[in-house]
């Protein structure tokens, strides 16, 4: 008798198997979408298909007369109704419909949502020397076809990253042909390195029709944006994203003065901004994100926010001087500081109670924190969810006491969920609990009466971390769930492998465990033993307690 064949786990499958599976799913989805479209057409024309006919189509798309009859249903629709149905479909569904019906194929050629990127233009099959002429010819033909057929472009995604030598005159021409009355969304992505910086033509937004209809403007490029007095009032614009854009303080102030209904503002790695001011006139602004690229630019030294209805504020950079007025609606804050050394936790504990007193969800990410979190009288009375991430890059651990994080717990009387993520072997330099050492315990007379769920990822045998865990167990009578995960990849241990999602038998959710090196696996086993000696015996019976040790299949120490 031959030995049983070894089972191949999904995340180890070959790329060909994944492609075949994707093809099968796509065919099933196309059949399902076609049946839905056919049902909609039959309902609009008053015809009804019999149940026997419907059941006959369940196994696939019928051939011959049945296929012709299905396409005839779409042919009966007037062109304006057909275009309307096609325009409200997502791009992928619209393309599938065009593959299944000649009527929708004609409509597809005049589709109002254009995605012109390297994949859609098939630039991967063109030699780099020929790409410029090819791109110019293709885009000119597409836009000419829309203009000749009287089709207004509502959405344009123009991604030109493979072409770094296209002249500004071509870009200006394409934008002027598309950004007209009825235009809603613009996404422009330019190459990271260009021979000459592109000046975005604000004149295309000077037209009253275009300025009043555009709803989303997303510029991801090395370009300059200098708003002038000719810029129209963008009263319908709700989303503005500027990435790698050069704009001055005065230019941004002038630009923001043109918005009356802006809801989301994202500024990433934009040069020229020294003082970021969000005026009180932005009554509808709800989300503000400011991030930076450490190499390419410097971020504002001062941030002034006076938006009365701002709900969410994300900041990823060296922490500036922040002034917030009318902050009663600010409920969600995320602060990340990649600079070395970071004082994100110190800054949050000392400053947030005054600038975001009503915050309910707080995410802090610090690298090389070099100052213990101080115990203060100030409070965050409405904070319910707290997540703290700590990483080291080799310099964090020896000078920071993790037990000082109880300052956040003490400052948050309404706290219900606490997540601590230790990344990249963050506490490698901290003193650890030896096999013969007594359980470390420092008495801290603080009580947390509403804390219900606690999760620690990257749990190790560091003394201060064990002390923090013991403190939470002994001072939190409301605790319902405590999870200690010895891996660094997060609680669900998920990651993508060549675009395929596998399932590890030791993982709760779909996904492969995050890789761990030999030293990290050894420390994880040591942490499990430390838990058994110092923590497990202190867990009340009513608390759901779980320790996730190294995965026997994924964490072999060979990564």
Tell me what the structure shows:
The longest helix is centred in the N-terminal third of the chain and has 31 residues, at 15-45. Residues 1-16, 44-65, 494-503 and 505-510 have low confidence and may be disordered. With 559 residues, the chain is an alpha/beta fold. It is built from 14 helices and 19 strands. The chain has a 16-stranded parallel sheet that branches. A three-stranded parallel sheet has the order 8-10-12. The chain has helices spanning 15-45, 51-56, 65-75, 79-88, 91-100, 102-108, 131-148, 168-178, 208-213, 249-256, 344-355, 406-410, 463-475, 518-534, and strands at residues 113-116, 155-159, 185-189, 198-199, 216-224, 239-246, 264-268, 275-278, 287-291, 302-305, 312-316, 321-324, 332-337, 361-367, 385-391, 417-422, 453-457, 481-485, 544-548.
């Amino acid at each position: 008798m031959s030995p049983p064949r070894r089972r191949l786990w999904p995340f180890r499958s070959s790329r060909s198997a994944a492609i075949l599976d994707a093809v099968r799913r796509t065919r099933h989805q196309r059949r399902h979408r076609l049946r839905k479209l056919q049902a909609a057409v039959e309902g609009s024309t008053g015809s009804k298909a019999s149940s026997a006919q419907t059941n006959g189509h369940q196994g696939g798309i019928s051939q011959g007369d049945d296929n012709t009859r299905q396409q005839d249903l779409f042919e009966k629709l007037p062109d304006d109704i057909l275009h309307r149905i096609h325009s409200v479909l997502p791009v992928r569904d619209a393309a599938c419909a065009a593959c299944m019906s000649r009527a929708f194929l004609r409509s597809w050629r005049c589709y109002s949502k254009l995605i012109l990127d390297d994949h859609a233009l098939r630039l991967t099959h063109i030699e780099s020397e020929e790409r410029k002429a090819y791109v110019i010819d293709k885009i000119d033909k597409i836009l000419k076809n829309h203009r000749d057929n009287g089709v207004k472009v509502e959405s344009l995604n123009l991604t030109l990253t493979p072409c770094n030598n296209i002249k500004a005159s071509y870009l200006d021409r394409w934008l002027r042909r598309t950004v007209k009355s009825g235009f809603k969304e613009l996404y422009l992505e330019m190459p990271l390195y260009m021979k000459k910086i592109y000046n975005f033509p604000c004149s295309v937004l000077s037209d009253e029709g275009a300025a009043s209809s555009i709803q989303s403007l997303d510029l991801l490029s090395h370009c300059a944006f200098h708003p002038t007095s000719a810029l129209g009032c963008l009263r319908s614009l709700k989303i503005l994203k500027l990435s790698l854009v050069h704009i001055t303080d005065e230019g941004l102030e002038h630009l923001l003065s043109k918005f009356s209904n802006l809801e989301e503002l994202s500024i990433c790695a934009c040069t020229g901004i020294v003082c970021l001011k969000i005026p009180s006139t932005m009554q509808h602004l709800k989300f503000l994100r400011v991030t930076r690229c450490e190499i390419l630019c410097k971020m504002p030294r001062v941030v002034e926010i006076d938006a009365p209805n701002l709900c969410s504020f994300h900041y990823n950079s060296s922490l500036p001087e922040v002034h917030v007025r009318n902050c009663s609606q600010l409920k969600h804050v995320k602060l990340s500081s990649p600079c070395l050394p970071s004082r994100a936790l110190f800054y949050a504990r000392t400053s947030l109670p005054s600038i975001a007193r009503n915050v309910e969800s707080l995410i802090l990410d610090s690298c090389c924190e070099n100052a213990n979190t101080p115990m203060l009288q100030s409070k965050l009375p409405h904070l319910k969810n707290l997540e703290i991430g700590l990483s080291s890059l080799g310099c964090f651990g020896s000078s920071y006491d993790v037990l000082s994080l109880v300052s956040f717990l003490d400052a948050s009387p309404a706290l219900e969920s606490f997540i601590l993520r230790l990344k990249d072997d963050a506490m490698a330099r901290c003193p650890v609990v030896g096999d013969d050492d007594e359980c470390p315990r420092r008495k801290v007379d603080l009580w947390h009466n509403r804390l219900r769920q606690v999760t620690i990822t990257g749990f190790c045998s560091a003394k201060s971390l064990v002390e923090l865990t013991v403190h939470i167990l002994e001072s939190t009578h409301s605790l319902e769930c405590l999870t200690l995960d010895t891996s660094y990849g997060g609680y669900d241990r998920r990651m993508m492998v060549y675009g395929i999602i596998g399932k590890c038998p030791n993982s709760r959710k779909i996904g492969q465990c995050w890789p761990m090196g030999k030293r990290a696996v050894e420390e994880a086993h040591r942490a499990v033993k430390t838990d058994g000696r110092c923590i497990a015996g202190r867990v009340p019976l009513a608390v759901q307690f779980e320790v996730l040790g190294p995965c026997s299949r994924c964490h072999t120490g060979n990564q």
